[in-house]
Write a structure and sequence with these properties.
Strand content: under 5%
Distance between the termini: 87 Å
Number of helices: 4
Helix content: 40-55%
Structural class: mainly alpha
C-alpha cells in the first residue's frame, strides 16, 4: 500500500482555511429577518390602524373607563379559589 505524504504547506493552508470558516456567521438568513415575524403579526392584529383619527368613532366615557379599570384591578386582589383536585369525579354519580 502506498502512503501519500502532504507537504506541510498544504496542511497549514488547510488549517488556516478551516479556522477561517469557524469565524463565519452561521445564521445570516435568520439574522436578516430577525423581528419580521413580530412586525407581521402586529400588522395582522391591527384591523383599522387609523381608528383614532376618525371623529365619528365612539369613545369610552370616563365613568365607564374608571369602572372597567376598577373591575380589572379587583380581579387581581381576590383570586378565584382553587378546586380540590382529589375530589374531581368522586361522588355525585348517577346509580
Amino acid at each position: 500500500m502506498k502512503t501519500i505524504h502532504f507537504p506541510s504547506r498544504v496542511l497549514a493552508v488547510a488549517a488556516v482555511l478551516l479556522g477561517a470558516t469557524a469565524c463565519a456567521p452561521t445564521t445570516p438568513n435568520l439574522d436578516r429577518s430577525f423581528g419580521r415575524s413580530l412586525s407581521t403579526l402586529k400588522a395582522y392584529q391591527t384591523a383599522y390602524p387609523d381608528a383614532s383619527r376618525n371623529p365619528d368613532n365612539p369613545a369610552l366615557d370616563g365613568v365607564a373607563a374608571a369602572e372597567a379599570m376598577a373591575r380589572y384591578e379587583k380581579s387581581f386582589s381576590a383570586p378565584a379559589p382553587q378546586q380540590n383536585v382529589f375530589t374531581i369525579g368522586v361522588g355525585g354519580g348517577v346509580q
